[in-house]
């Protein structure tokens, strides 16, 4: 919050952290010199006071604590109760992450409706096909023809299992309890190492100070297992060579916005592998149902993981390049 002359009336903790200065040091000081180019802010202050516009948005750079500029998107608007100017500064990386999160959430909601409608349209015909195949099998003149009806029944059952898996995140209420995320990580680690006993290293880098979170342990285990197993499957060449590596890393994120809600503390759980990376053409669609880059994949593992995490108010992000892929699970703590 700035006074009409540009002096600082109030700053929040996020700006203190970005500048490396305390509120006491900033209060009453001219804010303009804290920007690499103060010209746009001075123009915004004059324009707001003259009521040329209600709000003005512009790009700027904050002078960081180590002399490194921090690019931000700035919005200056009149704060009518005080007559001052409300200056909102969004770090560009945070703004990009926020827009990406909104896209993933909107995508998830669209997928949920699509899956529900599609499942309803598939299940009824499946039941009829399976029942008709069973009745036909009883009327066949030659026993060897039953092989064909068994194929129909088996494939109908396979599709039914697929539909059930798609509906799984939305069927059962969450069983909320205090969950130790590191116990979840260790459980998943043991399961994956039992499946890939040779050629794969699963390293840990935990922050032991992270508190327990409220969640459904089974859903969190399934979400993390899907991500780690997906990483292991992408590492098949390195596993054969004996140099495959997955790292589970936990950190605390502070003052994070998830689902349009500001959280004082959040958990960041990274799953990092040294595989070939996600193909560029798939990176924007890896959470879409039935999209997969593997010939034997179903395209459901990451979709279900995202659905489980979103039910906990969190989000899964992905960054990938050849030799390093990171899936970051963000979950609110407080």
UniProtKB/TrEMBL annotation:
Main EC class the enzyme belongs to: transferase
Record GO terms (molecular function): ATP binding; phosphorelay sensor kinase activity
UniProt-listed Enzyme Commission number(s): 2.7.13.3
Domain Histidine kinase per the UniProt entry, residue ranges: 117-334
Keywords: ATP-binding, Kinase, Nucleotide-binding, Phosphoprotein, Transferase, Two-component regulatory system
Name of the protein described by the UniProt record: histidine kinase
Organism: Pulveribacter suum
PANTHER family attached to this UniProt entry: SENSOR HISTIDINE KINASE, SENSORY HISTIDINE KINASE_PHOSPHATASE NTRB
Reactions the enzyme catalyzes: ATP + protein L-histidine = ADP + protein N-phospho-L-histidine
Superkingdom classification of source: Bacteria
InterPro entries: HATPase_C_sf, HATPase_dom, His_kinase_dom, HisK_dim/P_dom, HisK_dim/P_sf, Sig_transdc_His_kin-like_C
Pfam families documented for this protein: HATPase_c, HisKA
């Amino acid at each position: 919050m700035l006074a009409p002359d540009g002096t600082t009336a109030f700053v929040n903790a996020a700006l203190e952290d970005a500048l490396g200065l305390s509120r006491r040091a900033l209060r009453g000081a001219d804010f303009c010199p804290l920007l690499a180019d103060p010209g746009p802010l001075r123009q915004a202050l004059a324009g707001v006071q003259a009521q040329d516009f209600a709000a003005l948005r512009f790009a700027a750079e904050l002078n960081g604590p180590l002399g490194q500029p921090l690019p931000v998107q700035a919005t200056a608007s009149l704060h009518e109760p005080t007559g001052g100017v409300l200056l909102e500064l969004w770090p560009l990386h945070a703004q990009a992450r926020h827009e990406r999160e909104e896209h993933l959430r909107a995508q998830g909601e669209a997928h949920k409706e699509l899956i529900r409608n599609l499942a309803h349209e598939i299940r009824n015909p499946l039941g009829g096909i399976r029942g008709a195949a069973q009745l036909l099998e009883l009327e066949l003149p030659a026993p060897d023809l039953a092989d064909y009806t068994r194929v129909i029944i088996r494939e109908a059952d396979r599709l039914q299992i697929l539909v059930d898996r798609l509906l799984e995140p939305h069927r059962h209420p969450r069983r909320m309890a205090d969950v130790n995320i590191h116990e979840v990580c260790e459980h998943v680690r043991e399961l994956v190492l039992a499946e890939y006993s040779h050629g794969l290293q699963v390293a840990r880098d935990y922050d032991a100070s992270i508190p327990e979170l409220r969640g459904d342990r089974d859903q969190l285990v399934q979400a993390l297992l899907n991500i780690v197993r997906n990483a292991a499957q992408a590492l098949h060449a390195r596993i054969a060579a004996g140099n495959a590596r997955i790292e589970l890393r936990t950190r605390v994120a502070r003052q994070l916005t998830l689902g349009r809600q500001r959280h004082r503390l959040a958990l960041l759980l990274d799953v990092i592998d040294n595989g070939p990376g996600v193909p560029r053409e798939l990176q924007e669609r890896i959470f879409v149902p039935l999209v997969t880059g593997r010939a034997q994949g179903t395209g459901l593992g990451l979709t279900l993981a995202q659905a489980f995490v979103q039910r906990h108010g969190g989000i899964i992000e992905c960054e990938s390049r050849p030799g390093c892929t990171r899936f970051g699970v963000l979950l609110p703590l407080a």
